[in-house]
């Protein structure tokens, strides 16, 4: 009796994933436009120069989007949502493609559209009610929003049941759950982000900027001073980078918060005014700043002894929002990097190069 091949006992999806190679970290290929700039540099410094250039390009693009206003930020958030969802679903689709099972990708995108309609159908009315009332189709979609959302989900549910194939029930139900978990993480997070944007762009700009600062400064400190490995999932991450990035993020958060609190453009909620003829210019960002964005006097407890040790005055004139910023910066410094670690483990687990999730998880 001949010995059976172990590979014959493995399902096709596992054999497919084993053929894929784990992607290597770092910048593997230099863009042709930058070849003259990095010519003659070592791999370490070539990677540094490329990262430096593209970091400032992306920061510049982010500033332009902020200048365009809250609706531009909303569009970008939705674009990131769709791209993240696509990356996650493609992993599940690789399994379905091996087995030749029908409708998985179409069903996944259908549920994404349904989820977005359910989350945004009513909430955005508060910010654009005048526009909605000008079009009958919008009024109909809003008036019957919950019934339509339920009906759309039921259609997707029936569609899934009709697509079931014998012998593959377990995998199909597993990937059905995979889609719903992806929706829970991606759509819910983007919905909350957009809600923050319309409550005042500062609630979006400051946290995102903190993550960017933490990522950049952790790389800088790790590049020049890194000696002690931090975690096995990301061998290039070091304690020096982690600590240096954390301290830099706290200082950066306090400074940028103090600056942004001075401008109504960033602290005022988005409101619609129909006093102007132009639709897009009707979205005003002008208001009387709330308590959080007005200078307040805080007395430093004498028991701390800070005035004697560091020369800090007995009273501080700061914005209350800076205290929120302090807590957010600590969270960004300690928890934010673990979003990147999670993504690193995720791509290694599936042996698939998850390009976009690495930069989007936890706002990275």
Could you outline the blueprint of secondary structure elements for this entry?
Blueprint: H1 12-19, H2 35-38, H3 43-68, H4 70-99, H5 104-123, H6 125-133, H7 136-143, H8 145-162, H9 169-198, H10 202-225, E1 229-231, E2 234-238, H11 239-260, H12 264-267, E3 271-272, E4 283-284, E5 296-299, H13 306-310, E6 315-318, H14 320-334, H15 336-350, H16 357-360
Antiparallel strand pairs: 1-2, 3-4, 5-6
Question: Key features?
Answer:
two-stranded antiparallel ribbon; 5% strand; disordered N terminus; mainly alpha; 364 residues; two-stranded antiparallel sheet
General description of the model:
The protein is mostly helical and 364 residues long. Helices cover 66% and strands 5% of the residues. It has 16 helices and six strands. The chain has helices at residues 12-19, 35-38, 43-68, 70-99, 104-123, 125-133, 136-143, 145-162, 169-198, 202-225, 239-260, 264-267, 306-310, 320-334, 336-350, 357-360, and strands at residues 229-231, 234-238, 271-272, 283-284, 296-299, 315-318. A two-stranded antiparallel sheet has the order 1-2. Strands 3-4 form a two-stranded antiparallel ribbon. Strands 5-6 form a two-stranded antiparallel sheet. β1 and β2 (234-238) form a beta hairpin. α4 (70-99) runs antiparallel to α5 and α11 packs antiparallel against α14. The longest helix is centred in the N-terminal third of the chain and has 30 residues, at 70-99.
């Amino acid at each position: 009796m001949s010995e059976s091949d172990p590979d014959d006992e493995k399902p096709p999806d596992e054999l497919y994933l084993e053929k894929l190679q784990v992607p290597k970290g770092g910048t593997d290929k230099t863009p042709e436009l930058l070849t003259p700039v990095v010519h003659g540099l070592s791999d370490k410094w070539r990677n540094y120069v490329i990262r430096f250039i593209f970091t400032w390009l992306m920061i510049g693009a982010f500033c332009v989007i902020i200048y365009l206003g809250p609706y531009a930020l909303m569009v970008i958030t939705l674009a990131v949502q769709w791209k993240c969802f696509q990356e996650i679903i493609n992993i599940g689709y690789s399994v379905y493609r091996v087995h030749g099972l029908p409708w998985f990708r179409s069903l996944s995108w259908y549920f994404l559209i349904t989820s977005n309609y359910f989350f945004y159908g009513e909430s955005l009315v508060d910010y654009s009610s005048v526009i909605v009332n000008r079009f009958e189709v919008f009024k109909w979609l809003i008036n019957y929003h919950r019934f339509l959302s339920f009906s759309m989900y039921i259609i997707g549910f029936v569609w899934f049941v009709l697509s079931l194939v014998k012998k593959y029930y377990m995998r199909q139900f597993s990937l059905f759950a995979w889609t719903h978990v992806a929706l829970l993480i991606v759509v819910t997070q983007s919905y909350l982000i957009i809600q923050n944007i319309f409550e005042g762009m500062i609630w979006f700009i400051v946290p995102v900027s903190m993550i960017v600062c933490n990522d950049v400064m952790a790389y800088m400190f790790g590049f020049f001073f890194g000696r002690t490995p931090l975690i096995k999932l990301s061998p290039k991450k070091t304690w020096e980078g982690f600590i240096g990035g954390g301290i830099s993020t706290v200082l950066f958060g306090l400074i940028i918060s103090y600056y942004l609190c001075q401008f109504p453009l960033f602290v005022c909620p988005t409101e619609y005014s129909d006093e102007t003829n132009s639709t897009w210019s009707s979205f005003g960002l002008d208001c009387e700043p709330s308590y959080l964005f007005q200078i307040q006097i805080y007395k430093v407890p004498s028991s701390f002894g800070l005035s004697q040790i560091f020369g800090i005055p007995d009273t501080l004139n700061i914005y209350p929002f800076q205290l929120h910023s302090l807590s957010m910066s600590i969270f960004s410094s300690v928890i934010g990097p673990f979003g990147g670690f999670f993504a690193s483990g995720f791509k290694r687990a599936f042996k698939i190069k998850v390009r976009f999730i690495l930069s989007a998880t936890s706002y990275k």
